Amino acid sequence: MQTILGAGGPIADELARALVRSHTKDIRLVSRKPVKVNESDELVVADLTDAEATSRAVAGSSVAYLTVGLPLDSELWERQFPVMMRNVIDACAEHGTKLVFFDNTYMYPGTPEPQDERTAYAPAGRKGRVRGELAQMLLSAMEAGRVEALIGRAPEFYGPGRTKSYTNSLVFDRIRAGKRPFVPVNAHTKRSLIWTPDASRALALLGNTPDAFGQTWHLPIDPDRKTYAQLVEIAGEVLGRRIGYTVLPMLAFRIGRRFNETLDEMFELLARYRGDNLFDSSKFAARFPEFEVTTYRDGIEQILTG
User: Fold this and answer.
1) Which of 65, 127, 135, 252 is the most exposed place for a label (fewest CB within 10 A)?
2) Phi and psi dihedrals of 152, rounded to 5?
């Protein structure tokens, strides 16, 4: 049995498909309102802030994947994420279950220097501090021998279907709707974006590779990084028309955050858009050279024409 904790999002759904395609058909999906992805999926209703419910959800699992997400709400993150992580670690330790934690890069500095698995944490705000705390909680449990685990870390998403990210909502979703895309802060800095199905396939592969545990892994991206200007240009080539864009400067966000809670929650993340964002996934590529990464062009074609 392999269990996905936090089922229902695009990463978890594609992870369930990837596991069944390549690794096991014995899948359990856990959330407050789980829905089958594969016909053979077992559904378990559980609130991961409840320790007993978390333990029951993990029981009998050889591997558990923690993919739970929360709305961009700093107070909610501070209140719930650490409790969830503690409960999941305790449950995995109790049942001898391996743990795969799907993480992001919010704890990294928003600087143009390359980021690899050794990059020191330097969060710029509350959400980044929470993510750093979660990662450190798990690393400490791993070092203490309480749990066999790994961290799979991803940069900003882009992807098909219900993928939620600033790049999807501001750029590709608007292009699909025939609207002018918005580019956050700078159109000419290199972006590191991960195709969501690639992130899920990589998590499934790591979770079924014994020697991957005990480590942090940057999940695979197309290393031919593009700027937003280049991504919009590719979109125009795919659709056969010229597409312009509007850059939203920092001042617009600085003013807007006073009146819009979503913009206020987003503000701490904007530093990474000022300069190049160079997420380095070469460790994964060296260990799994057969893994085929979706190119930016192929991903954009799937978003806009799929």
Assistant:
1) 252
2) -110, 115
Tell me if 185 is assigned to some domain.
Answer: no
The count of domains in the chain is 1
Instruction: Examine residue 258 and state whether it is found in any structural domain, yes or no.
Output: no
Q: pLDDT tens, 153-187?
A: 999 999 998 888 889 999 999 999 999 999 999 99
For 78, the domain range is 2-158+194-221
Could you tell me the two tokens for 25? 């058909």
Is residue 125, in this structure, part of any structural domain at all? yes
| Beta carbons of 104 and 52 less than 8 angstroms apart | no
List pLDDT tens digits, range 60-105: 999 999 999 998 899 999 999 999 999 999 999 999 999 999 999 9
| Cα–Cα distance for residue pair 213/291, rounded to 1 Å | 18
Asked whether residue 296 is domain-assigned, the answer is no
Q: What is the spatial distance between Cα 213 and Cα 238, in angstroms, rounded to a whole number?
A: 40
